[in-house]
Write a structure and sequence with these properties.
- The chain is built from four helices and eight strands; from the N terminus they run βββααβαββββα.
- A hairpin with a 2-residue loop joins β7 and β8.
- The protein has a single domain, classed as OB fold (Dihydrolipoamide Acetyltransferase, E2P).
Length: 187
C-alpha cells in the first residue's frame, strides 16, 4: 500500500527539543479559551533538512489555504506579510540559552497527542515527559483567518521521546536531586 504524502505534515528531526511541554493534561491559554495540549519545538538551525521540510509545509499550507486567507479581501496577502509559526530563537528569545542557534515552533491541539518512546511503545509514565527532552514531533501546518488575524498555524499530532535532556524552566527532577546523596543522615 503506497503512503499518501501530505505536503503540510512534517516529522521533525531527532535533535528537536521539547519545551513548555503539555502532553499529559491540556492547559487553558492565558486570558481563557479552550484548553489545549501544546509544545514549543526547538529545532537546531544545523538541522537544515527539518527546517527545509517546515518551510515547504508552510508554503503548502499557504497555497492550500488561499481562499481562507483571502477572506473578504480582493486578493490573498503575500506569505511574507502573514504570521507564520517558524520563529528565530536568536531574535525572539535572545536571553534563553535553550533557544540559541535554533528556530522554534509552537504547536498545539485540543486532542491529546500520542506519545511513544524510541521503540514506538506508548509512554504511560507521565514523569517521563518534561520540558527539555529530545525527540521527534509529527506536526501539520494550516491557514487561519479569525478576528482579523491571518496566517499559518501549527497543529500537534504526535510525539516520540528519544532522549532525556536537562530539564528546562529551572525545575529539577526528584531523581536528579537525590542521586548523589552521600551524607548518612543516621550517623
Amino acid at each position: 500500500m503506497a503512503k499518501i504524502m501530505n505536503p503540510t505534515k512534517v516529522i521533525t528531526g531527532p535533535k528537536t527539543r521539547f519545551s513548555y511541554l503539555n502532553a499529559n493534561e491540556p492547559k487553558a491559554p492565558l486570558g481563557g479559551g479552550t484548553p489545549k495540549y501544546s509544545v514549543s519545538l526547538i529545532v537546531p538551525k544545523s538541522d537544515t533538512a527539518t527546517v527545509a521540510k517546515i518551510k515547504a509545509a508552510i508554503q503548502a499550507a499557504y497555497e492550500e489555504g488561499q481562499s481562507k486567507l483571502k477572506g473578504n479581501s480582493k486578493s490573498v496577502p503575500p506569505l511574507s506579510t502573514l504570521k507564520t509559526p517558524l520563529r528565530d530563537g536568536d531574535i525572539e528569545r535572545p536571553d534563553d540559552e535553550a533557544y540559541a542557534n535554533s528556530y522554534f515552533i509552537n504547536a498545539n491541539s485540543t486532542t491529546k497527542p500520542g506519545v511513544v518512546d524510541g521503540d514506538r511503545q506508548p509512554i504511560l509514565d507521565t514523569s517521563e515527559l518534561y520540558s527539555g527532552i529530545y525527540g521527534r514531533a509529527s506536526i501539520n501546518f494550516y491557514a487561519f483567518n479569525s478576528n482579523g488575524n491571518r496566517g499559518i498555524a501549527c497543529g500537534l499530532n504526535n510525539l516520540q521521546k528519544l532522549a532525556d535532556g536537562e530539564p528546562l524552566g529551572g525545575h529539577s527532577r526528584a531523581e536528579d536531586d537525590f542521586a548523589d546523596d552521600d551524607e548518612d543522615f543516621l550517623s
